[in-house]
Every structure is written in C-alpha cells, then in structure tokens.
Specification:
The chain is α+β, with helices and mostly antiparallel strands. It has eight helices and 14 strands. It is 30% helix and 25% strand. A hairpin with an 8-residue loop joins strand 9 and strand 10. Helix 2 crosses helix 3. The longest helix is centred in the middle third of the chain and has 19 residues. It is globular and about 60 Å long.
Length: 271
C-alpha cells in the first residue's frame, strides 16, 4: 500500500489519536483560492506562494492564498454581489452563515496574501488596481485585524463579487494532525488590470507556474506541494485554459486522508 510516512512526533501523535489516548483537534473552517491567468504563450498559470520556513503549519510548502475564517467574515454588513450566501450554502454543503464566512474569507485572504481583490464598485465591475500605498495600508490593517473586511469595503464603496469565485474542492485535514482545517478550495480568474505582488508576511517567495510545470517541479524535488495542492494542480492541468476551468462542472466530494499502519509504519493515505 502506498502513502506518505508519518515520522517523528507527528507519527507518535497519530498513534496516540488512533489509540484513543488523545482526542482529534477540531478542524477550523478555512478557504483557499486558486488565482488563474492566461499564460504568456498559451494555456494558463496559477499563483503560488511559498510559506516561510518559520511557519508552524506547512513550512516551506508552495500553496495557494488562503486562511482561516475570521468570526467577522460572517458579518451580514459585508456588501455582497452575486450568488447569495444561501445559494453558496448549497454548493458548499454548509448553512448560510458558514457559507457567508467561507466566501468572505476567500476574498479577504486572497487580498491579504496576493493583493488581488475580488470586489468592485457595483455588480458588474472590479477594482482595476490595488497597488498604491493606501491599499497597502488597508491590507496590513486587515492582516492584523485592526480593520474589519466589512468596514474596508464600506469605506471604499465596494461590494464583494461572489460571482467571480467557483468552488472547486473540499479537503479536511486528517484527524491525526495537530493543526486541522476544514477547507473549501475556490478558483478565480485574475481580474483585468490587477496584478499580484510579493506581499511578504507568511510567504517568502511567490511565483506563477503552469499547473503541469508546478507538478514537474514537485516530482523532481525542486518544490514541496502538500497533497491537496498537488491534487488540485493535477486536476487543473487537464483543462485548456482559464475559461475551461471556470466552465467545468464539478461534483464536490469531501476528501480527508486517513492513516493506516503498514509493517509497523504509519502512513497517510489519500483517497
């Protein structure tokens, strides 16, 4: 049987969980967004950031922008355009409040970690540029939670564009992990006129890669991808471009890796 080995303290913690000596850590709601753009020649590219080596979770891994839901993300004061939270709830398999929080977190975290903002003055437009000093001040205030996302949008006269997102996948961290997330993966096209930038913080490097290129770098050991990121890139590599991804029909199936013991070694198995 194949799978990823669980060495050291992680393996010991997994044994304690499997033996019932330790209760699994609750999984926190989280959202991740795959930002897509047309490639310089053909096909498409995805935005990846490398998590700093000092991070407690997924240090050194190349990931998509995203993070945990903030309690204020479910605030009904968040200006909204596009499918309603109730409609999103059907796609996400969640109640309206959780769906609102997940979509809001997806948009907020994307702005915090890439500078891309899926919002506009009205239901048919998107802000064209978010690279000025005033935008950077707001981004930092959102990160340190001194500014609520609802207040940020209201002050700038913007509405969250939920129609620019498409749900792609649903992953839950294995029960044996010490940090767990219940994460919805979304995809979105880079809005015209906007550009990503190296925003620092939790990341120390950012890149644009074709999905197949990122997978090849991972197979060669040049970069490290966590299983959900690898699986998502593998799925995206089967599509011809951004339009094909956004038009793809998806059946969202919840995926949670499990742990099995093989010849005395614990291994993480991904369905």
């Amino acid at each position: 049987m194949t799978g990823l080995p669980l060495p050291g303290e992680l393996g010991e913690h997994a044994r304690r969980v499997l033996a019932g000596r330790v209760r699994p850590v609750p999984a926190r709601d989280a959202a991740t967004v795959v930002i897509l753009r047309a490639g310089p020649a053909d096909g498409m590219q995805v935005y990846l950031l490398r998590r700093s080596a000092t991070m407690a979770f997924a240090a050194g891994a190349y990931v998509f922008p995203g993070g945990s839901v903030d309690p204020r993300d479910a605030d009904q004061a968040v200006a909204w355009a596009g499918p309603s939270p109730a409609e999103w709830g059907k796609d996400l398999g969640a109640d309206e409040a959780v769906a609102r929080g997940l979509v809001c977190a997806a948009v907020r975290e994307t702005f915090e970690e890439s500078g891309v903002l899926l919002a506009g003055p009205d239901t048919g437009s998107v802000v064209a540029d978010t690279t000025g000093d005033d935008w950077e001040a707001d981004r930092l205030a959102l990160i340190d939670r001194s500014l609520a996302f609802a207040d940020f949008l209201a002050r700038r006269g913007l509405v969250l564009r939920s129609d620019l997102l498409k749900v792609w996948a649903h992953w839950i961290t294995p029960e044996v992990e010490t940090r767990r997330f219940d994460t919805r993966f979304f995809v979105a096209a880079l809005p015209e006129g906007q550009r990503t930038r190296d925003v620092g913080g939790e990341a120390d490097h950012v890149v644009w890669h074709r999905p197949a290129e990122a997978l090849e770098l991972a197979r060669s050991g040049s970069i490290f991808l966590m299983p959900p990121t690898y699986r998502t890139l593998d799925e995206l590599a089967g599509h011809d471009g951004v339009g094909a991804v956004l038009a793809a029909r998806r059946e969202i199936v919840t995926t949670m890796p499990t742990v099995v013991e093989v010849d005395g070694e614990l291994r993480l198995v991904i369905p």
